[in-house]
């Protein structure tokens, strides 16, 4: 869901506009940190009911905190641990209705109640993850997962 003051139309229309804006914002910028920073800021500005939006980057066999918007976060996450580590080890998005029911959930922010994590790939290898937390149980649906996966595909062209 987007804040209605920014985009009008269906949820899908709003996501398509957001993805176009991301592509234009990152066009021609080669710096990965700058691009991840702007991507997290853009998502934080337009997604409602979220309390953390950011990236973890795969470094030396673990996820390391990258650019984000929100409260301070866990710095390192091993593959297979928590929602982010599971997304890396399985190579698939993880949409968690209630993080308290997720085995091994890492609670960086006790306010987080649901989470969506999308893996990012570069040259066919894991690059990192997009991690979005919400203070509401069940915040993310199939449409969010589908369109945020497209958002990540667009981001992958710029990293």
UniProtKB/TrEMBL annotation:
InterPro entries tied to this protein: FRMsr_CS, GAF, GAF-like_dom_sf, Phosphatase_reg/MetRdx
Note the SMART domains from the entry: GAF
Annotated signal peptide: none
Gene3D superfamilies tied to this protein: 3.30.450.40
The residue ranges of the GAF domain are: 31-159
Cross-referenced Pfam families: GAF
State the family it belongs to: Belongs to the free Met sulfoxide reductase family.
Query: Mind telling me what this protein is named?
Result: GAF domain-containing protein
Question: Which organism is the protein's source?
Answer: Halobacillus amylolyticus
